[in-house]
Design a protein that fits this description.
Blueprint (H helix, E strand, L loop, with lengths): L4 E5 L5 H10 L5 E5 L11 H16 L5 E4 L2 H14 L4 E2 L2 H11 L4 E6 L1 H6 L1 H9 L4 E6 L3 H6 L6 H10 L11 E4 L8 H8 L4 E3 L2 H14 L15 E4 L4 H9 L8 E3 L4
Parallel strand pairs: 1-2, 1-3, 2-9, 3-4, 5-6, 5-7, 7-8, 9-10
Length: 268
Amino acid sequence: MERPIGVIDSGIGGLTVLYELKRQLPKEKFVYLGDTLRCPYGSKEPMEVKQYTWEMVEHLLTFDIKLLVVACNTATAIVLEDLIQHLNIPVIGVVEPGARAAIKSTVSQHIGIIGTKNTISSQAYEYALKQINPHIKTLGIACPRFVPMIESGDITGEEAYRVVYESLKSIEHSPNIDTLILGCTHYPIIQPVIEDVLGDKVTVLSSALETGAEVSASLTFYNMHTTTDTLLSNDPLILTTGSLQVLQRLKDEIFHFTNSQVKQVTLV
């Protein structure tokens, strides 16, 4: 089935998931939509997040997508079940794959979760973790300064280190934490900074790897894998509601989607 896979995010962060999907599924065609104009979603009211997410989905449906990946933790926490109920294609979020990765990693059974205000307050990760292991201890930390910083393109400088250090100070008071979930798909873009700040006693994980595995399993289950080799050289089509400048730089320098088309779209 040669229809594309749709990937949505509140901005550029979902490129971290898209990169892993393309790595694991090189024959598949992808259409990515990042709502950078209205990013971040993490501080918005849940009804706004639901409205904006559905607007992105409706736009991607015009591409006849065969599967939808919600590569935004906030949207996954708030809208995933609604999407699953109302769409007639498979829908995959990023929370449960991230929780599974953390369960595999932790030895101490103490897991930290960083994310947007909405993701942390939803306790979606805590629920997913405890569904697997009720004895897991968690610490959730909202990091509202991360997404605006990343969207601005400031990902390696002194300011980035200062913001990360100030945001994660509370982990110093929780020495049993040995695994940290990056509960926002923007955060892997600054993962090297986070790892430098926390040191080697904490394993830092994103949900991208496990999400890729789940998408692959769904394609197999529904017999949706692309079977031809004609798409091997196809880079994803990348759509954004906002400025092209930062997106263009990141997709080339970090994700190496050098042949991808980047287009600006308007959602109504």
